[in-house]
Input
Amino acid sequence: MHEENTAATNGCGKTRSSYQNEAALLALMEKTGYSMVQENGQRKFGGPPPGWEGPPPPRGCEVFVGKIPRDMYEDELVPIFERAGKIYEFRLMMEFSGENRGYAFVMYTAKEEAQLAIKILNNYEIRPGKFIGVCVSLDNCRLFIGAIPKEKKKQEILNEMKKVTEGVVDVIVYPNATDKTKNRGFAFVEYESHRAAAMARRRLIPGTFQLWGHTIQVDWADPEKEVDEETMQRVKVLYVRNLMLSTTEDTIKAEFNKFKPGVVERVKKLRDYAFVHFFNREDAVAAMSVMNGRCIDGASIEVTLAKPINKESTWKQHFNDQISPCSESLLGFPSKEDGHQKSAWKHANLSVRLNGQHSPSPPEVERCTYPFLPGTKLTPISMYSLKSSHFSSAVMHLDYFCYKNNWVPPEYYLYSTTSQDGKILLVYKVLVPSIAYGSQSYFMPDKLCTTLEDAKELAAQLTLLHLVL
Output
């Protein structure tokens, strides 16, 4: 047995033997009545707890815990996390040596308890100078499947996925923006559990698996954003998708006003989707019920409540926190000192248009160089086969974004003026030809730059904000 198993420090200069560790865990089990089992690199405490009847808690009840000291175990951790509520299951990731791997998952019996754990234990000083991180853990049950033949219908895709994987519940397929008889070349597959989705991904991920003679792309879908019920109760904006490119904002407003004249405040349309703003929430909810499934200009539309998010957090999430402080100030994002936040509206599934690979939490881009050794084998590659996390500039992201949507590349038009002190100031106008039927086909920042690179980057950032949100 490894020497590391015989003793472990407790972070206070003292060591605890394996016998003491075992005794402490046995005492915890005896006190709580919970069982404990170690399998597949994790140690499970509970799941279910004593006397539990019925199904496990719903999604949203689990939190992720990071930065746990490697020599800290359940006898210390469980009492801390019990402060937020009743624990259904505590899963501590373990090394072969006997140390933990620095993170765990805690599932509570109710969502409110998980939210409280995040509130009171995130950045909690668990030992002197040691702070843990606690955030929501999304039990993702959805896979992104790319490179699907565009002529395949939903039922065909559903039947095929059921043949090659187990636990398939549903398939989400979006119609092509220009030809509603075809799909967009990708689909989302919903599984009955995270385990079923993970097993399916493992089976399909090698890159050699084919459907209908096509090598498919497989990855985790971006999880839907959780919005608390209190916030959703205030929403008075509808998200409308599957519109024709030629459908105008005026047409949409007129159609939604038909069931009750004068209830629509404004409409914002982009490509084949739109956001319909109402004066009152009650009218928005009623319109959603009436208009969902209706035809506008020959297209059967889907209508749901939009989910409110913050522009700053969305940008950072999609581009992996790669914005520099200079870029943030150029775009005019609110700071903590502003005393308020600007908000925008977005449907959770719109993230597919940005990140075709659908990594739920892509790592920060590593920006460094490696030695190019003699004899190193090089393989030709297209930039469009990469993930969006490989790009650090908004200009590259915008080009990638357009490609993934089967749009023609954006066009940049440069303009200049002279400042009062004689400096030449620059600004780009970005034209996106593929959304020429929308309400706005070009985008221009309201700020001027002194360098060409900054002007182009700023214009691309602004365009992406409008297209994604």
